[in-house]
Amino acid sequence: xxxxxxxxxxxxxxxHGHNSVFQMALIQQPLQQNRQSQTRRxxxxxxxxxxxxxxxxxxxxxxxxxxxxxxxxxxxxxEPILLPSSIRYGKPIPKVSLSKVGCASLIGQRKENEDRFQxxxxxxxxxxxxxxxxxxxxxxxxxxxxxMETFIKDLxxxxxxxxxxxxxxxLEVDKAFAKHLHFFPNSPATNAGTTATVAxxxxxxxxxxxxxxxSRAMLCRRGKVLKLTDDHTPERKDEKMRxxxxxxFITWNSLGQPNVNGxxxxxxxxxxxxxxxxxxxxEPETKAISLHPVHDSFLALTTDGINFIMNxxxxxxxxxxxxxxxxxxxxxxxxxxxxGSEDNSTIIVVPFGAWGKHKSSDPSFSFSRSFVSSGRWA
Length: 378
Description:
Elements: H1 3-13, H2 18-39, H3 67-70, H4 83-89, E1 102-106, E2 115-121, E3 126-135, H5 139-156, H6 162-182, E4 193-194, E5 196-202, E6 206-212, E7 216-221, E8 224-227, H7 237-245, E9 250-252, E10 258-260, E11 270-271, E12 285-290, E13 296-302, H8 304-307, H9 312-320, H10 325-338, E14 345-351
Antiparallel strand pairs: 1-14, 2-3, 3-4, 3-5, 4-11, 5-6, 6-12, 7-8, 7-13, 9-10, 13-14
Subcellular location: Mitochondrion matrix
GO molecular function: metal ion binding; protein serine/threonine phosphatase activity
Keywords: Hydrolase, Manganese, Metal-binding, Mitochondrion, Protein phosphatase, Transit peptide
């Protein structure tokens, strides 16, 4: 029975004396408080559950719909909001914290770890992530680790387009490495080279990736992998055509792997100067993409010690089962070795707004994989 009915019943059944007035006051007081509470605006913290209703909770999960549908923030995102970026782009953008980025690099069955990686807050607005997989010695990877960020930082002050910045930086680093080796003509490092996969994240939402070689960058969106790079191998028709037009040739080793001039399993790299006249170039392919914080879980950069033994969706699924990016990076690098990879295994995992949202992704893995060496040299 409602409070209004109770009030009417009390009014009709009791004489109008002091006691009845007192009882009516007791009944009306909660009614007034209830009306005031209904007119008062309800405030909710980002992590607080709301009661279900048809507009904001269509699946009765107790969670509101995302901000890109109704203009409200998804309460599954616990990261603080980047206020300047959010104002600049007109929508809430969560902060990416370097302290939460996961990194791992294992030597595997090699005598030396020639992989290098780097993460940094390069400028107030731009974050820098990079992996370099050296071959023929670690010198080229070491040089990129030391100078690539510096070249990019200098170019960013003059050029707004990040894809253009990455293209210029890769070419300038390659030239600088050539000059560096000019002072050591008898050094074994003259034939050294490296892959380079670099990602720049500006304002927490603008992601640009540049890559040469077969290290990869991938984005997990709605639990599915989105490849941001394509391997530069002689198997690609466009890459093979450039090599042949430049006077180079393609051979296959005993494992069936194609190689440029019988020794290099990639068609683009930094270094490898003895093959530059044969069509091996340092110009990267770039890709720019805008992040969707409520759908994008993470960015992963990997070297071929992982890529040659685990496919991209499998990497995405394994990471989605982990509690945090650091655990994910360690698990992926170790799992690649357990599956039979003999190469160095390096990975960077950068969490975004939807981290942990897709833990229900398919955890099944394929065990029918190729257990061959992932070396680039024949």
